[in-house]
Design a protein that fits this description.
Blueprint lengths: L3 E4 L4 E8 L5 E12 L4 E2 L13 E4 L7 H6 L7 E5 L10 E5 L2 E3 L8 E7 L2 E8 L3 E4 L6 E4 L6 E3 L9 E5 L14 E5 L11 H4 L7 E3 L36 E4 L2 E4 L14 E2 L8 E5 L6 E5 L3 E9 L8 E2 L1 E8 L4 E11 L5 E10 L4
Parallel strand pairs: 1-26, 7-24
Antiparallel strand pairs: 2-3, 3-4, 3-25, 5-6, 7-19, 8-13, 9-10, 9-20, 10-16, 11-12, 14-15, 17-18, 20-21, 22-23, 22-26, 24-25
């Protein structure tokens, strides 16, 4: 069962019972703060974003798309995709930088749209956005035509990234008994995306997605660039399903069954936006061409959080420092959600309360 929280901070906080990698009982403490990006100000307590117990999805058809962009999602308008993942997971192996944003042209005038995500001056990801395109067979080579050459705002979410078709050997365990083990199957690198074709004829006049990596842009229907986009990565992505079933322990958290042994399974940002080390106070994330202003930035606050558990006999535990492991930036909403997590040991499930303490400045 969850512990009560004595919370005097302006942040939201919640706990849930879990187990450590070694299998010992723990309580995971989640703390979330919400800032207004444009002025770098912590929002008032009643405007703080909630801690999400379950995934929040949105139908593709509810997104504000122009006419040409809606052609790409034709037939999939009612299909849901994850806009926000559940916050209920243990501390992560790496820091997740998640950006829900639209690539935009300055002044809403069309040009080649290129966006960048920088961390402390280092470019982590560069994306190119184009108008939706179609391939039409020609005498010598396919002709590429843009459906809406004057497009000036493009969703940069993973669901709109190309990702590319690929082939892989079918695992022996998935083959009918007696089948040769070298069977090859076609699959999609970005299983959440759209616009995939397996042949030139199938690709004829089919509108394709419009977000791609600047390092490996797509020129033809058969190109196979890596999945590169913003937002949460799909659960169907292989990197989130690499745990063998016999080593995983499933737990129901929200509406999702997660593997809790391999903590890397919980990282949900695109790989270029997963940082090996947690940011330090004063670190800066810069977003370019992902907002109407053309540039916005978030600076990590000089705030330190500690949690002290108390058991049912009134004995206090050694304080545990919380660590940042997720930042969700939404330039359209002028919002930044910063998440701390900590894992408190709970032998015998005796923890009854957790006191949350905030310190600022150099008093860490």
């Amino acid at each position: 069962m969850s512990c009560s929280i004595l919370n005097s901070t302006p942040f939201r906080a919640s706990t849930f019972p879990d187990e450590s990698i070694e299998g010992a009982p723990t309580q995971v403490l989640i703390v979330k703060g919400t800032w207004q990006i444009s002025v770098g100000r912590l929002l008032a307590p009643h405007h703080q974003a909630p801690i999400r117990f379950m995934d929040e999805t949105i139908p593709l058809g509810d997104l504000p798309l122009d006419v040409a962009q809606r052609v790409v999602i034709s037939g999939r308008e009612s299909e849901d995709w994850v806009r926000y993942e559940s916050d209920y997971c243990p501390p992560k192996d790496r820091f997740d930088l998640i950006v829900n944003a639209w690539i935009q042209c300055a002044g809403n005038r069309y040009s080649r749209m290129e966006s960048m995500v920088d961390f402390d001056g280092q470019c982590l990801m560069t994306l190119i956005a184009r108008a939706p395109r179609v391939w039409i067979p020609g005498l010598l080579a396919p002709v590429i035509k843009e459906l809406s050459p004057d497009v000036c705002k493009v969703p940069a979410f993973n669901v709109f990234a190309y990702g590319g078709p690929a082939n892989r050997p079918v695992p022996i365990a998935e083959l009918p008994q007696g089948t040769a083990s070298k069977v090859i199957e076609h699959w999609h690198l970005n299983q959440e995306g759209m616009g995939y074709c397996t042949s030139a004829s199938q690709s004829n006049a089919v509108p394709l997605p419009w977000v791609e990596s600047s390092k490996s842009p797509i020129h033809f229907w058969s190109d196979r660039p890596p999945v590169t986009a913003l937002g949460h990565i799909s659960r169907a992505d292989q990197s989130r399903q690499r745990m063998p079933p016999d080593r995983s322990r499933e737990q129901d958290v929200g509406n999702v069954k997660e593997h809790s042994v391999d903590r890397g399974h919980f990282n949900s940002a695109p790989r270029p936006l997963q940082l090996n080390d947690a940011p330090q106070p004063g670190s800066v994330v810069d977003l370019w061409n992902l907002s109407q202003s053309g540039h916005c930035r978030f600076q990590f606050p000089d705030i330190h959080l500690w949690a002290m558990g108390e058991d049912r006999a009134g004995r206090r535990r050694v304080p545990v420092k919380l660590v940042w492991d997720t930042l969700l930036l939404e330039p359209e909403l002028d919002s930044a959600e910063l998440v701390w997590r900590a894992e408190l040991t709970d032998p015998g499930h005796q923890l009854s309360s957790i006191t949350l303490i905030a310190r600022s400045g150099g008093s860490n």
